[in-house]
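Protein fold
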Amino acid sequence: MAENKNINTSNPTDLSKVNEKAPYQDMTLGNQVYGGGGSKEFKTGEWRTQTPVMNWEKCVNCLLCAPFCPDSCIPVVDGKRQDFDYDHCKGCGICAKVCSFKAIDMKEGL
């Protein structure tokens, strides 16, 4: 594959340069991934149909739920589980499924 030397490699995912008048040299090549994706910049939790709700009385802080969350929406600070990051939680329910203590309930809407 020929290398395109005109490509913006300093920040190939700089979306501020993408507009209808942008020259092709400032665009990333199609089907190329230059870095890991994520939703930290964009709130993606507003379209979920179910919302995880913690029952803190049942939670034993085993932290089993945190590594199973596909969107890293269960923060752990100083070895203690924090409340959900609802800005990015998609409501998949994996955390509720893996919780052996039934400390997470999935609620419709919310």
Notes: The helical segments are 65-68, 94-98. The first strand starts at residue 50 and ends at 54. The mean pLDDT is 82. The longest helix spans residues 94-98.
